[in-house]
Specification:
Layout: H1 3-6, H2 10-13, E1 26-28, E2 49-55, H3 59-62, E3 71-74, E4 77-79, E5 82-89, E6 93-99, E7 116-123, E8 128-130, E9 135-137, E10 143-146, E11 154-159, E12 164-177, E13 201-217, E14 227-230, E15 236-240, E16 244-249, E17 257-261, E18 274-279, E19 286-291, E20 296-300, E21 312-314, H4 327-331, E22 335-338, E23 344-348, E24 352-357, E25 366-369, H5 378-383, E26 393-395, E27 401-405, E28 410-415, E29 421-425, E30 442-443, E31 453-454, E32 466-469, E33 475-480, E34 483-489, H6 490-498
Parallel strand pairs: 1-25, 30-31
Antiparallel strand pairs: 2-34, 3-5, 4-5, 5-6, 6-7, 8-9, 10-11, 11-12, 12-13, 14-15, 15-16, 16-17, 18-19, 19-20, 20-21, 22-23, 23-24, 24-25, 26-27, 27-28, 28-29, 32-33, 33-34
Length: 499
């Protein structure tokens, strides 16, 4: 049950929260004085990217649906065996890709460095039905989270709207042989035929990847789960739906602890819903959650078991002069991420991406315009439901660059040091392997340059909602419609080839 279905009048009954961009310490990525959304002709070094490859979908996953939202989630993981990242689909499947190691020796010329291949694919969730509420439960994967690696196996959490599952992904390249009481096919022998004893041995075999469910965390949420986040202690995680946040222990499946509950006694008094939640990367007692009003609440579990009273609240002052019918909808936070250092917060609403300092609650320290040119199109975007799209945002490994998605297969990057932003495009017709991505520009008026894209020509069905940034390298994964792309920093790519 989405927040729109919880209360059809929620957009009209809650107080508006328009944004006041002038309050920010730094505002970047704005339209120029001539009304254009500028991208510089000279592409800065930090955003010169080449496409390394277009990752194919697995045969099973690609045949599920042709929906433009085939891919529902991306999440990178760096492990001892290499780099893994899973792709969640609307069909309930999880496809895990692995970055192959660099091949050296005589076969080096035949193999591609850093090529991504399908490591494993499995069905995580099946469609279900809630008979008490007469409600269908989709199998679509909402979120995926890796657990810290403790041994050779990998563990990940996946969730649909209701049920969270813990999966174990392991490899097996040896098989036992030489049993005394079993034959080669595994059938039991007649004991009378056994005349001697032998020690079973392990013999090499083809690599097999096994995926097994270890835990099923069900019946913890009444409304649709929108977030899961693993705690830094490695033992607990939180899950959030529209009105509640629960904390689970990874070894206990039959109960959870409710740590946030914003459900009113009378549902007609509902004014906001929870849109995202995440644990602090270093402090296990801190977590943040965002709301449809555009507010962020930092909670400290040391103060109280039930964190209905927040430790800090982050919001921008309200400007009644800028209030409109769409103010509350476009101010709803669709994603929130802690920086790797834990000092800053990154949030995305419909038109902007913002950086908040945990030590300053009065407003964001940085505000970047993603597609301000759509402000005049809000009415039509509301009619086709695009205004309710939930875009994600990510940090790079050093917290110096942020990235988020847009329409027309565009995605945007912003350099926090200079405040400059660029618009890049991910689509297979023009992006050949090893080709440098060109910056794009949206034309809104004035002098039109060659290659500019008009606002009325934007394709709103080609939206980039999900993306991921490698935790150590300048490599990004972009989910554009039903294609998955890998882009690598141009400088790093050239250095790799020269080595």
């Amino acid at each position: 049950m989405s927040w729109r279905s919880i209360s059809g009048e929620i957009g009209r009954c809650r107080s508006a929260r328009p944004r006041q961009h002038g309050r920010s310490l730094r505002t970047a990525g704005r339209d120029g004085p001539d009304g254009h959304t500028h991208t510089h002709t000279h592409t800065p070094r930090w955003c010169s990217w080449v496409r390394t490859e277009r990752v194919p979908n697995s045969t099973t996953a690609s045949s599920e649906t042709t929906s433009p939202r085939l891919m529902s989630f991306l999440r990178w993981s760096l492990t001892r065996q290499g780099t893994f990242w899973p792709q969640g689909t609307r069909g309930g499947r999880v496809v895990i890709f692995r970055r192959e190691p660099e091949v050296k020796g005589e076969e080096e010329e035949l193999a591609e460095v850093g090529e991504y291949n399908v490591y494993s694919t499995f069905q995580s969730h099946e469609p279900d039905f809630d008979y008490l509420k007469s409600l269908e439960i989709e199998e679509k994967i909402n979120k995926i989270r890796w657990l810290p690696q403790q041994n050779a196996a990998h563990f990940l959490l996946s969730t649909n709207d209701k049920t969270i599952k813990l999966w174990k992904v392991s490899e097996r390249d040896r098989r036992p042989e030489g049993y005394n009481l079993k034959d080669e096919e595994g059938r039991l022998k007649d004991i009378s035929t056994v005349t001697s004893l032998q020690v079973p041995v392990l013999k090499p075999t083809d690599l097999m990847v096994e995926v097994r469910p270890r835990r099923v965390f069900a019946n913890g949420h009444t409304y649709h789960v929108n977030s899961i986040s693993v705690n830094s202690d490695g033992e607990t995680y939180l899950s959030a739906d529209d009105l509640r946040i629960n904390m689970w222990h990874l070894d206990i499946t039959d109960r959870s602890f409710n740590i946030v509950d914003i459900k009113p006694v009378n549902m007609e008094d509902l004014t906001e819903v929870i849109t995202a939640a995440e644990f602090h990367p270093h402090h296990c007692h801190l977590f943040i959650y965002s709301s449809s009003k555009g507010t962020l609440r930092l909670c400290d579990m040391r103060a109280s078991a039930l964190c209905d009273r927040h430790a800090k609240i982050f919001e921008e002052p309200e400007d009644p002069g800028n209030r409109s019918f769409f103010s509350e909808i476009i101010s709803s936070v669709s994603d929130v991420k802690f920086s790797h250092s834990g000092r800053y917060l990154l949030t995305r609403d419909y038109l902007t991406v913002k950086v908040w300092d945990l030590n300053m609650e009065k407003g964001p320290v940085e505000t970047y315009q993603v597609h301000e040119y759509l402000r005049s199109k809000l009415c039509s975007l509301y009619e086709n439901d695009c205004i309710f799209d939930k875009f994600e945002c990510v940090w790079n490994s050093t917290d110096s660059v942020i990235m988020t998605g847009a329409y027309n297969s565009f995605f945007r990057m912003f350099d926090r040091e200079t405040g400059r932003g660029v618009t890049l495009e991910a689509w297979r017709e023009s992006s050949k392997p090893r080709a440098v991505l060109r910056t794009r520009r949206v034309y809104t008026g004035g002098r039109r340059r060659r290659g500019d894209v008009g606002v009325d020509s934007l394709d709103f069905t080609k939206k980039i909602l999900h993306m991921a940034w490698h935790p150590e390298e300048n490599i990004i994964a972009i989910a554009a419609t039903n294609n998955l792309y890998i882009f690598q920093d141009r400088v790093n790519s050239e250095n790799t080839e020269n080595q």
